[in-house]
Amino acid sequence: MARIHNFNAGPAAMPLEVIEKAREELTDLGGIGMSVMEISHRSREFQAIVDGAEAGIRRLMKVPEDYAVLFLQGGASLQFAMLPLNLRRPGKSADYVDTGSWATRAVKEARITGPVNVAWSGKADRYARIPGPAELRLLPDAEYVHICSNETIGGIRWTRFPETEAPLVVDMSSDILSREVDITRMAVAYAGAQKNLGPSGLAVVILRRDLAQRVPENVPLFFRYTTHIADGSLYNTPNTWAIYMLKLTCEWMEARGGVAAMERENERKAATLYQVLDSSDFWNSPVEAESRSIMNVVWRLGTEELEARFIAETKAAGMVGLKGHRSVGGIRASIYNAVPAASVEALAEFMREFERKNG
Fold it and tell me: How far apart are the first and last CA of the chain?
């Protein structure tokens, strides 16, 4: 069966070359007679995989040695809880910028264990834009400032990260490795793996080592970053398969020219769709132009009936994952690193033909 055009939001498309490499090694990893899913996480072979995955992240993102790179379970959602537990000391508050569904979840989790200052919220504008610097109401003594760099549901992103006095913490789950960023401007960057890094069940956390020392004494050992730093992400049995796949994904990216090459390709792919959306009033893009995501392109049609027809016809044409999130409806194309330009071009051509028939 031929592979279809996959626009799923996450778990999402993975590089075919990575999937084929994993298939080759599925029953016999490097001639050891076992699958990566069978070997001990304490083995020499798996240590080489962890080391290779970390080295790949460090090279691609230019991560200096005063930052730790961790591979943890629980996805980004667990980080919503771990971050305030580790970085917000008793009696202190943290700033959160509410730009959409995922930032809102981070706020909700952080409020369970301590004070939160919502420095700005886009809820009144239906999360259609990113705030300007003058709109942020940051506390002078905040423990950190938390943002979500790209909102998958609303289709918006920070094109420039805010300048902050407090340490900047960035949820990069849906755009990590999609564009070049200066990691040293951030105190913490974290991401669930299931969009640009590999399969689900894994989170990558990149954080300044000195900041990890803030952790209060009453935080359980498992929820301390210092615990996982000390044990090299092997405090407990990790998701061995996901780390292996992340390593292969990093190698695939490096072979294609690294993050800079990914960014150029992603900008081109996004422009292909936005050109169609901007070509007529048949399509409605609800996002402010300056805030448009290059990972998740969202739009609406004139009626829900027309949207349902679009979803059904694209599926029949071999394009899946285009239905908007259940909380907002509409249509969404997630075009992460591994989504080929050919898939995006096929979608754009389908859109033009759909408009011709229904406009």
Answer: 34
Catalytic residue among 171, 175, 247, 252: 171
Q: Please list, in sequence order, all residues whose beta carbon lies within 8 angstroms of the beta carbon of residue 148, skipping any fewer than 6 positions away.
A: 97, 99, 100, 102, 103, 106, 170, 171, 173
Peptide bond into 167 cis (omega under 30): no
241 is catalytic: no
Among the listed residues 95, 98, 102, 120, the single catalytic one is: 102
What DSSP string describes 268-327? HHHHHHHHHHTT-TTSB--S-GGGB-SSEEEEB-SSHHHHHHHHHHHHHTTEE--BPPTT
pLDDT score, position 254: 99
To the query of whether residue 102 is one of the catalytic residues in this protein, the response is yes
Domains and CATH numbers, the chain: 16-255 (3.40.640.10), 257-358 (3.90.1150.10)
The one-character DSSP state at 255 is: H
Helix H segments across 30-168? 44-61, 75-87, 101-113
How far apart are the C-alpha atoms of 262 and 268, rounded to whole Å?
A: 10
- Residue 186: half-sphere exposure toward Cβ, Cα within 13 Å: 25
Instruction: Supply the DSSP symbol for 18.
Output: H
**Residue 247 annotated as catalytic:** no
For tokens 């995922």, name the residue: 102
Per-residue pLDDT reduced to its tens digit, 1-48: 689 999 999 999 999 999 999 999 999 999 999 999 999 999 999 999
From the number of C-beta atoms within 10 Å of its C-beta (0-12, 13-18, 19+), residue 326 rates as: exposed
Strand partners, 229: none
pLDDT digits (tens, 9 = 90+) for 203-220: 999 999 999 999 999 999
Residue 241: closest CA among 61, 18, 5: 18
Q: Is 178 helix (H, G, I), strand (E, B) or coil?
A: coil
